[in-house]
Amino acid sequence: MNTLQQHIKQKEFSKLYLLYGEEDYLKKRYKDSLQVAIISDDLTMNYSYFEGKNIDVIEVIEKAETLPFFNDRRLIIIENSDLFLVQNSLADRLNTLPKSTHIIFVEKKVDKRSKLYKQIKKNGTITELNELDNKKLKVFVASLLKKDNKKVTENTVSYLLDKTGTNMLYIQNEVEKLICYAYDRDLITKEDIDSVCTEQIEGKIFQMIDAIVVKNKDTALKLYYDLLELKEKPMSILFLLSRHFKILLQVKDLSKLGRDKYTIAGKVGVSPYFVGKYIGQSNKFSVDSLKDNLYLCNQAEEDVKTGRQNDQLGVELLIIQFSNN
User: Which stretches in the chain have pLDDT values below 50?
Assistant: First the structure.
């Protein structure tokens, strides 16, 4: 990210950029910043945008080989194309492009073995943009609030992130709701968050597991009914419960091996922000109890699929069984 910021500040640009990873907010932010810096507001004659998996590579090449009109630069943005996952002829043509042409690729996934990736690594700038860690997410939230002269405690920020998850676009939307709700008040409170912020389903699953740990059947069932009211399907909830127990089992094993939270996050496929919570929950279960719960999830799924049990009642009985074990 520092390289991109330096290019934008100094207005010295690579011919080729690749922005990839899971964090859409950061990809959009740097894509937009590069776009403005490279061609300013010239979004007609010297700008082309391509999106999707059915991009015509020949058309891209034709646009890229065209010299700019009344401008020093031409910009092409290619987004969500999967060009880094399939064979294509684009990599062979990038070496012959005019110096005035700049191309920005924005992708979620790439194959680092692909010819196109290697070409950009050799002749351009590649930046991976994934979820921020706990500390940086808190700074992000505080900075959004500060722009509107709002204040917040660190505990309240943590409370917000527990509800929203780590997707920065979603966090931004929820913070905007908080700013409007607080209106002329300076301090954002937990009560504000409870009033206007929508909790992600994963957050309720965490709470449900917490209730199961302490055998609080009523709370676990209330959370289940809340999810049903939000139009979540019983089988989707069952899938998330099963996934959660699998993650707890993996986290427990990796934690015993002394792996740090970033290693655990990478191996398990979760945000580093939530690893501490997973470790805390996993410590409250034995390995055998986690395996038993996974077996019960699989059994409940089979009962529903074979018609032996209604889906809504089946998951309800499963939660009761978890809470009683």
Answer: none
Residue ranges of the alpha helices (H) in the chain? 2-10, 24-39, 57-64, 90-93, 115-123, 134-146, 154-164, 168-182, 190-196, 201-213, 217-229, 234-256, 261-268, 272-282, 287-305, 311-324
Q: Quote the tokens at residue 256.
A: 């015993």
Q: What is the pLDDT of residue 42?
A: 64
Q: Domain check: are 152 and 232 in the same one?
A: no
Domain region containing 147: 134-196
The domain boundary, picked from 180, 196, 212, lies at 196
Last residue within a domain, chosen from 196, 217, 236: 196
Smallest CA-to-CA distance from 109 within 167, 34, 53 is with 53
User: Nearest CA to 155 among 125, 187, 181?
Assistant: 187
Query: What Rg value do the Cα atoms of the chain yield, rounded?
Result: 24
pLDDT of residue 104: 98
Is 0.70 surpassed by the pTM of this model? yes
Question: What is the C-alpha separation between 176 and 188, in angstroms, rounded?
Answer: 12
Structural domain count of the chain:
3
Please state, in angstroms and rounded to a whole number, the distance separating the CA atoms of residues 235 and 217.
20
CATH number at residue 163: 1.10.8.60
Residues 225, 188 within the same domain: no
pLDDT per position as a tens digit, 268-317: 988 888 888 899 999 999 999 999 999 999 999 999 999 999 999 999 99
Whether 143 and 179 share a structural domain:
yes
The tokens 């959660």 sit on which residue?
244
Q: Which tokens hold the place of 52? A: 């999707």
